[in-house]
Every structure is written in structure tokens, then in C-alpha cells.
Amino acid sequence: RIARAQGRRLVHCGEITAQMRNDTLSVERDLRRALQQKEFHLVYQPQMDLRLGRVVGVEALLRWRHPERGIVSPVEFIPILEESGMIDAVGAWVLDEACSQARHWELAGTPLRVGINLSPRQFHDTGLFDSIITATRKWGVAPKHIELEITESLAMQDPSRAIELLARLRGMGYKIAIDDFGIGYSSLEYLLRFPLDTIKVDRAFVRNVTESRADRAIVRAITVIAQTIGISTIAEGIETLRQCDFIEALGVNEIQGYLIGKPMSPADIERLITTFVRPGKGN
Ligand code: C2E
Ligand code: MG
Ligand code: MG
Ligand code: MG
């Protein structure tokens, strides 16, 4: 994502550039309208606990229903929201909407942990802490049902500030997850100083887990460390039963991916949990 955003800045000659600039500007204009016109909505992707065989959480994922272009992927417009500064307003909307939904599930007697993505730019916004508290209190949702997903790069940009902010939130009962976790640029030692509840293992290590010894070793190393420090793991992007079996054997706690369900509407989540049968295991 960052590479793409940089790529956009790096090309700067000829008509293609003018066209690209125009595109970005028109998308920016469209995005400004989108919030007022209620063109955003959230979809929710289920997360299954492997030991319980139950859906215990969901991740809220942003969608934009563009009047002409149809549903636009967040991969396309989140970088633009970030660069233009609109991410703070849209991020606050996401928090409000996701908290409202989490409260709805609490009241229905089917509480689900709801994961919310925070972007690096939002993290620099000093109002982020307030936005989180405001949305949670407004709806009266229990902080333990809100899981804030941050990325490794975000956490490492200003580690001491990140640690302080996350520790405060965690102290209030919010869950903190590190998203797209690999064995990336940050030193593992540093990462272990972060106040975390969950590591989300990047889809990149899941994709070839059945064939690649190296990927299995990486996932195993992550689960061993997680178990040692008492935090939970979620594997992202599980599409097949075979991947699920391997991942379970490596000691991962939860899975998220098309095998369990694609991102879907709240009504579809409710249908899924009432009729849910764990895939495989003789089913
Ligand atoms: P992410 O947080 O890592 O979310 C997981 C992405 O993987 C989602 O893409 C999801 O649809 C996709 N995915 C899940 N399971 C599978 C699978 O089994 N196979 C495959 N091929 N893909 C799977 P999506 O919804 O397009 O979101 C992309 C990214 O956009 C997210 O990655 C997140 O970084 C960002 N994003 C989404 N919603 C928000 C938001 O509300 N705020 C912020 N700041 N970022 C968001
Ligand atoms: Mg995420
Ligand atoms: Mg992720
Ligand atoms: Mg990802």
C-alpha cells in the first residue's frame, strides 16, 4: 500500500501523470461527498476459534458504494484518505458504526469481538484516543468487545508514543491486535515490549503453508513466542481445509478467511453464527 502511494508520487511526466493527478483529485472530491451521502458501509468477516469451533469475533472492513463505479476496494481509496487527511473523519465514522454494531450484538445476547483497523495517519491524530472513547461510550459497548488493529509499521513509527497510547487503551479493557504480522522490519524484541492481546499472522505465510517448510517454521516461531508471552494468534486468509489443518497443528488459536466466510453484512453474520458448523472434522 505504501509502495503504491509512493509510486503515485514518483511518476511525474507526460500525459499519464496529468491523467493520474486528475483521477486522484476526482477520487478525493468523490470521497469528500461519500461521507455526507452515506456511501460508506462496513462488512464483517468472521473469525473462528479453533479449539471451540465457534465464531468468536469479526473484523470490520470498510466498503465504498460509488454511484457510478460500484463497490470500491479499501485498498484503492484508503491511501487517498490518508494522504488527503480525510482518514480522521472517515476513521471516526468507522469507529462509531462498528461500536454501534458491537452493541447491537451484545444486546442480542450474541456478543462478538469486533476488530477495527486503525491507519498510520489516524494514529498521528491526537484526537484518536477521544474518538475511540466517544464511540464506545456513546453506544455503551464493553471495551473488551473492541479489538483495535494496528500495523507493525504504524507501531514502529513512534514506538514510545504507541506503547503509551496502547497501554492506556488496554488498561481500559480494549484489545490490541497487531495486523499483517510477519517477521518484518521491526526487531522482535522491540515488538515484544508492545502491549498486545493478539497477533494476526499475515496471509503471506498462510498461502503456501502446506508446501513451504520455511513458512511453517515462521508461523510456528510466531505461535511459540505468542504462547510464551500469553497472547493469542489469528491466521489471516485461510481458504482451504488443508491450510486450516496445518495452521491448527502449528498452534494458531483462531482463523479468519474465506473458508469460514467472506466479509458480509451484519444480517449474514447473524445467520452464520446461528447455523454455524465448523468446516471439516467429518462435516
Ligand atoms: P486487512 O486489515 O489485513 O484485512 C484483511 C483483508 O484480507 C480484507 O481485504 C479481506 O477481505 C481479505 N481477506 C480475508 N480473508 C481472505 C481470504 O481467505 N483470501 C483472500 N484472498 N483475501 C482475504 P479488504 O476488505 O479488501 O481490506 C483490505 C485492507 O484495507 C485491510 O487489510 C485494511 O488494511 C484496510 N482497511 C479495510 N477497512 C479499513 C478501515 O475501516 N480502516 C482502515 N484504516 N483500513 C481499513
Ligand atoms: Mg485488519
Ligand atoms: Mg490483516
Ligand atoms: Mg492484510
From TrEMBL:
Protein name, as recorded: GGDEF domain-containing response regulator
Organism: Pseudothauera lacus
Domain annotation EAL: ranges: 24-277
Domain of life: Bacteria
